[in-house]
Amino acid sequence: MFYWLMKYVVIGPVIKAVFRPWIVGRRNVPREGAAILASNHLSFSDSIFLPLMIDRRMAFLAKSDYFTGKGIKGWATRLFFTATGQLPIDRSGGKASEASLNTGLGVLGRGELLGIYPEGTRSPDGTLYRGRTGIARMALEARVPVIPVVMVDTGAIMPIGQRVPRVGRVGIVIGEPLDFSRFEGMESDRYILRSVTDEIMVALQRLGEQRYEDVYASTVKDRLATAQAAKAPSARH
User: Are 16 and 166 in contact (CB under 8 A)?
Assistant: First the structure.
C-alpha cells in the first residue's frame, strides 16, 4: 500500500509534472509473471523514473549503504528507498554476492519484476560498459526473460555527484524480451553466463545506440580516481 501511495499520490505526480518523462515500448513488460528488467545506468534517478513509468510494481537491488545512514537524513533516505521498492544488498563480494543473488531470486520466485543494472555501477561518462554475469545467473536459475531497458538523458539532469536534479525531460525505451530458455540447466557454466551477459549488453547497445567499451565501469572509475589523485599534488604547486 505504501509503495502505491508514494507512486500515485505523493511522489509520482510531482515527478511527472516536473520532468515530463516519456516512454516507448511499455507493452514489452509482461502484465504478469516474473521478469528481469536490465537497464543501462546513467544516474541515481534511473531507479526512480523506471518504476514510476511502468504499471507493475518492481524492485531494484540497491547498495546497503543507502539504508544505513543516521539521523533525519538517514531516516529520509531509507524511507525513500523503501517507498520506491528498492532492496538493500551488500556489494563487498564473496558470501555477500551470493546473498544478493538470493535476494534477487526471491523477488523473481514471487512472480515479480526485478530491475538490475548489468554494469554493476553508474557509467562515469555515459558509455555503456561490460556487464557482470550475475544477471545471467539469475535469469537462468529463475528461468525468466530479460527485458532490455535504456534510460535517456537521466545523466544530463542528475550526473554523478549532483544531489539535486536539474529540470529537464527524460525518457525510457523498453525493448523486446530476450529468451534464454535454450540454456536451461547451464547456470553453473561460466562461459554460458558470459555469453548470455554479452547478449544482453549487445541488446542494450543496439536499443540505445550508446558507445560501448568492453571493460568494467568500476575499472574505469578506479582509473579516473587514480588520475585525479595523481594530479592533486601538482595542483597545489
Answer: no
- Confidence bin at 237 (pLDDT 50/70/90): low
Angle at 61 between CA 59 and CA 65, to 5 degrees: 130
pLDDT category, 83, cuts 50, 70, 90? low
Strand order from edge to edge, sheet including 171-174:
22-24, 171-174, 146-152, 35-39, 113-116, 58-63, 86-89
pTM: 0.88
User: What does the DSSP assignment read for the chain?
Assistant: -HHHHIIIIISHHHHHHHH--EEE-GGGS-SSS-EEEEE----TTHHHHHHHHSSS-EEEEEEGGGG---HHHHHHHHHHHHHTTEEEE--SSTHHHHHHHHHHHHHHHTT-EEEE-TTSS--SSS-EEPPPTHHHHHHHHHT--EEEEEEESHHHHS-TT-SSPPP---EEEE-PPBP-GGGTT-TT-HHHHHHHHHHHHHHHHHHH---EESS-HHHHHHHHHHHHHHHHHHHT-
Distance CA 97, CA 118 (A): 14
Spatial distance between the Cα atoms of 37 and 49, rounded to a whole number of angstroms: 13
* pLDDT value for 195: 98
Predicted pLDDT of residue 30: 96
Task: Give the integer Cα–Cα distance in Å for 118 and 2.
Answer: 28
